Amino acid sequence: MNRGLQLFNRALEPEMFNDWTVIDKIFDDSFWSPVARSYEETKVDIKDYKDRVEVILDAPGYNKDDIKIKIQDGVMTISGEVKREKEDKDVKFLHREISNKSFTRNFRLGKDFKEDKIEAKVVDGLFVITVPKLEDSEKYKEVTIK
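and the corresponding structure tokens:
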């Protein structure tokens, strides 16, 4: 049974939870903070159509040059990095919340997608990644008996 496109986090793979000592890490802020911040800042919707799946990524503060999409071993990784202004010795911040930031989101692709035909564009400030599905005739190959 094909489960389609699946969102997952490499840091939270099932084999990681084999030891009770890991439970302590769950309550440690340093364990969750990078993961939590990444999901807090970047939200995704996944829409399933007859011929494609669309991943809509809301990543405020990122432009198209800040986002990278890679496909490897059946996993689509969407990552982004923004580097803010360089330190200026003539400027003293009274308060600063805007800083460098980055995120990574991973999606496990099922067997029924055309990995080489994935497209991405920006629409109304959202990143739209289109993952085409294989047609029924492409899902199998018939072997001719000689």
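(Above: one complete record from the training split.) Residues 29-41 form the longest helix (13 residues).
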